[in-house]
Amino acid sequence: MNLVIFGPPGAGKGTQSAKLVKEFNLFQLSTGDLLREEVSKKNDFGNKIEEIMKSGGLVSDEIINNLIENKISNPEYKNRIIFDGFPRNLDQAKSLDNLLKKYNQQISLALNLKVDNQILVKRITGRVTCSVCNKTFNIFFDPPKTCDLKDCGQRKLITRSDDNEDTIVKRLKTYDEKTFPVLDYYLKKGIMKNIDGMQDINAISDQLFTIIGAVRS
Ligand code: ADP
Ligand code: ADP
Ligand code: ZN
């Protein structure tokens, strides 16, 4: 099955996707991660993307759709994709449906993590990522004790350059204006489930396991 994990910046989409990947042998397709990979190449294309990410706006649909088709077309990932951070506007949601149709697939579930803005800001300002295994922690809520590589000695914790208060305010605004309407799109399809994203990380993943388990069987 293919899933969409939905929610504002800092809602816990990446954290929960990592758990779902392990539990159900899924493939996490994070457009944010794919974009950061391009940025790390330090070429003109990557620099252009970095500018947009730092501004808190959205990268063009054309760029995103190309990145996405690359993965959807791969037989290895067929019917086991979690879309994390995508679609982020109505046009992307429609493009996703068309692309999936082209490769004989569909979305079975859209999971919406609901979190209040005040908590989002704290989660984003506290977010750090291990530079070696890419696992995400939080200096307030999920202190980095052990990462996936247990004791990766050369571990360096990185704060994303767009996780500062100025950019966060803009990202939340972009979410309200462009991304929030996508919820209605999935609601109308009858595949949307709301989840209280303000619970503990494990309480949320238990709930997600149950919801997905029920749809799978
Ligand atoms: P998103 O992918 O939606 O932007 P992340 O999964 O990166 O969000 O989570 C944002 C930050 O909040 C991270 O630092 C993560 O460790 C932390 N976090 C995620 N889920 C929870 C939770 N349920 N309770 C407290 N902190 C959380
Ligand atoms: P978060 O979940 O914290 O918002 P992401 O890693 O998903 O972070 O996204 C970081 C940035 O990358 C976004 O603010 C946006 O600029 C860009 N981005 C990610 N996914 C998309 C997308 N599907 N469409 C357009 N821009 C995107
Ligand atoms: Zn690590």
Summarize the SSE layout with pairings:
Layout: E1 2-6, H1 13-24, E2 27-30, H2 31-40, H3 44-55, H4 61-72, E3 81-84, H5 90-102, E4 107-114, H6 117-125, E5 127-130, E6 136-138, E7 157-158, H7 165-179, H8 181-189, E8 192-196, H9 201-216
Parallel strand pairs: 1-3, 1-4, 2-3, 4-8
Antiparallel strand pairs: 5-6, 5-7
The structure holds adenosine-5'-diphosphate (2 copies) and zinc ion.
At CATH level 2, the architecture is 3-Layer(aba) Sandwich
In the CATH scheme, the class would be Alpha Beta
Radius of gyration: 17 Å
CATH topology: Rossmann fold
* Largest sheet entry: 5 strands, parallel
**Beta-strand segment tally:** 8
- Helix count, DSSP H or I runs of 4 or more residues: 9
SSE run: EHEHHHEHEHEEEHHEH
Q: Helical residue percent?
A: 40-55%
Q: How would you name the CATH homologous superfamily?
A: P-loop containing nucleotide triphosphate hydrolases
Bound molecules: adenosine-5'-diphosphate, zinc ion
Structural class: alpha/beta
- The unreliable regions are none
Average residue pLDDT: 94
Beta-strand share of residues = 15-25%
Number of domains: 1
Distance between the termini: 11 Å
The spatial strand order of the largest sheet comes to 2-3-1-4-8
The shape is: globular
Keywords for this entry:
binds zinc ion, alpha/beta, binds adenosine-5'-diphosphate, Rossmann fold, three-stranded antiparallel sheet, 16% strand, 217 residues, 9 helices, 50% helix
Question: Can you walk me through this structure?
Answer:
It is a single chain. The chain is α/β, with parallel strands linked by helices. The chain has a single domain (2-115, 173-216), classed as Rossmann fold, CATH 3.40.50. The chain is 50% helix and 16% strand. It is built from 9 helices and 8 strands. The chain has a 5-stranded parallel β-sheet, with helices on both faces. The chain has a 3-stranded antiparallel β-sheet with strand order 6-5-7. A hairpin with a 5-residue loop joins strand 5 (127-130) and strand 6 (136-138). Helix 2 crosses helix 3 and helix 6 (117-125) packs across helix 7. The longest helix has 16 residues, at 201-216. It is globular. The N and C termini lie close together (11 Å). One adenosine-5'-diphosphate binds at residues 9-10, 13, 31-32, 35, 52-53, 56-59, 64, 85-86, 88, 92, 171.
